[in-house]
């Protein structure tokens, strides 16, 4: 996996956008398409026809610990149904001897369902390919990678999604409750979702759609959670426990970049690069990162950039209290960050604070920040840089009571980009000059924001504002 700091240094040196050249490294050693100890347990696919793998009718534990290797070629799709491993012996699905590409003429190119569990889908089986598994052509607005029907405990990495005009979401991982009560909250939950080192591009709709988007069980604050089945039958969406979305590249997306919903515990969205999202100009589906209702966790060190503001919002928070958004870089959105609601009330909980620390928001076309204080409690706002927006912040009804520290001295808010003291804003280098007013003027957030966007330690010096700390190699004024 390429490190954030190593990648950033290389990119800044040549003055390129962060998404250019961003990719993890290929596997140093590929897999041969032969059954061998420590290698492939089974070799599947003929290089052309669709692949179907089912655990139905198999003995319990049949697939546990096996590595299913897919021969290289261009297939008509792949489906995994009721394929189940164990927590210590997951089922590995990978390529061998080259790249396996899946194009569907009738729907979903890469489908996982039927209560499949404990899977590791990884495209690391070819030394010649960074992304050894490719979910290509989808039809009928269907997702390119679709995990559903009580699928849980899945890791996905080194997979490319090649979007197309007839497809839908890039990677969709969600199970909605049925009106007969199947998959409802309290009877099932989605556990341990991990997606890393993928490349999702040119999707018609969202890049990643993880978890359902109407979590909760109490209607309040202009929001009705769950699925309305009519006649008073409302089924509530299951919890999503443990979501880690890290080190992914997403670009040229019709709708939102990454959205996560119902992630009641253990949500981490970190080190992702999201470029040119919201291309459909849909005002309700144009977030770079969207934290949907019922989600709580950390949104850290993401690069969110667009050259087409349209209706975009870099970061939309509609989740729960005790969440932290920190070290994010948001460039060129119509609105940099929108604090829409805090949905603890929909889960019959108190409204803890939400924290927004050490973020850099640059060049918003309308406003840097927007607050709905009537729908949430406090936003703890410190050590941020918001620069280059015609309106720095706005609020529903002009009410800013939820963010009392907004204009405090430990934030830099200025309509002029030059006032922030960046090294080279035109080249998207938002490191700080030693003379920047953002250097050393922050409050200590030790124990919460210990590192910056690149992983530099913030604790050894006065806190700087924004996503980038002045590095130890630069003399402080």
Describe it for me?
- InterPro entries: Choice_anch_Q_dom (IPR059226), PbH1 (IPR006626), Pectin_lyas_fold (IPR012334), Pectin_lyase_fold/virulence (IPR011050), TAT_signal (IPR006311).
- This is Right-handed parallel beta-helix repeat-containing protein.
- Keywords: Signal.
- It comes from Pyxidicoccus parkwayensis.
- By secondary structure, the protein is mainly beta.
- It has a domain of 291 residues.
- Helices cover 2% and strands 34% of the residues.
- The protein is built from 1 helix and 40 strands.
- The strands form 5 sheets. The chain has a 12-stranded parallel β-sheet with strand order 1-3-6-9-12-15-20-23-26-29-32-35, with no helix packed on it. A 12-stranded parallel β-sheet has the order 2-5-8-11-14-17-22-25-28-31-34-37, with no helix packed on it. The chain has a 12-stranded parallel β-sheet with strand order 4-7-10-13-16-21-24-27-30-33-36-38, with no helix packed on it.
- The longest helix is centred in the first third of the chain and has 11 residues.
Largest sheet: 12 strands, parallel
Shape: globular
Instruction: List unreliable stretches of 5+ residues.
Output: 1-21
Strand order of the largest sheet: 1-3-6-9-12-15-20-23-26-29-32-35
Mean pLDDT: 93
Keywords:
477 residues; mainly beta; 12-stranded parallel beta sheet; 1 helix; globular; disordered N terminus; TAT_signal; Right-handed parallel beta-helix repeat-containing protein; Choice_anch_Q_dom
């Amino acid at each position: 996996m390429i490190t954030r700091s190593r990648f950033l240094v290389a990119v800044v040196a040549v003055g390129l956008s962060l998404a250019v050249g961003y990719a993890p490294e290929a596997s140093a050693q590929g897999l041969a398409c032969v059954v061998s100890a420590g290698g492939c347990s089974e070799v599947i696919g003929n290089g052309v026809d669709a692949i179907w793998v089912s655990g139905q009718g198999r003995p319990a534990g049949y697939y546990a610990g096996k590595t299913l290797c897919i021969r290289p070629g261009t297939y008509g799709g792949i489906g995994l149904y009721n394929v189940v491993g164990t927590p210590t012996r997951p089922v590995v699905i990978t390529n061998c001897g080259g790249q396996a590409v899946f194009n569907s003429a009738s729907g979903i190119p890469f489908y996982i369902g039927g209560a499949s569990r404990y899977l590791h889908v990884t495209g690391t089986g070819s030394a010649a390919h960074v992304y050894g598994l490719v979910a290509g052509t989808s039809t009928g607005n269907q997702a390119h990678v679709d995990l559903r029907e009580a699928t849980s405990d899945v890791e996905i990495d080194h997979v490319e999604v090649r979007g197309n005009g007839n497809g839908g979401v890039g990677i969709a991982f969600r199970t909605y409750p049925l009106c007969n009560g199947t998959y409802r909250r309290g009877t099932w939950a989605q556990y341990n979702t991990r997606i890393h080192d993928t490349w999702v591009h040119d999707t018609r709709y969202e890049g990643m759609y993880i978890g359902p988007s109407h979590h909760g069980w109490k209607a309040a604050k202009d929001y009705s959670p769950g699925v309305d089945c009519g006649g008073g039958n409302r089924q509530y969406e299951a919890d999503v426990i443990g979501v880690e979305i890290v080190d992914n590249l997403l670009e040229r997306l019709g709708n939102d970049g990454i959205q996560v919903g119902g992630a009641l515990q253990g949500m981490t969205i970190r080190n992702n690069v999201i470029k040119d999202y919201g291309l459909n100009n849909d005002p309700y589906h144009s977030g770079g990162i969207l934290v949907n209702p019922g989600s709580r966790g950390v949104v850290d060190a993401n690069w969110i950039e667009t050259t087409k503001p349209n209706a975009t919002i870099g970061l939309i928070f509609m989740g729960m209290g005790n969440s932290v958004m920190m070290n994010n870089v948001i460039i060129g959105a119509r609105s940099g960050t929108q604090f829409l609601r805090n949905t603890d009330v929909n889960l019959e909980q108190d409204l803890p604070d939400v924290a927004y620390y050490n973020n850099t928001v640059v060049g918003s076309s309308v406003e840097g920040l927007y607050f709905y204080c009537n729908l949430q409690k406090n936003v703890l706002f410190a050590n941020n840089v918001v620069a280059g927006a015609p309106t720095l912040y706005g609020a529903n009804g002009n009410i800013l009571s939820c963010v009392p520290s907004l204009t405090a001295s430990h934030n830099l808010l200025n309509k002029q980009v030059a006032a922030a003291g960046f090294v080279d804003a035109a080249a998207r280098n938002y490191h700080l000059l030693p003379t920047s007013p953002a250097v050393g003027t922050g409050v200590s957030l030790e124990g919460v924001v210990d590192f910056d966007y690149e992983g530099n330690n913030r604790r050894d010096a006065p806190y700087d504002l924004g996503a980038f700390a002045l590095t130890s190699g630069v003399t402080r004024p």
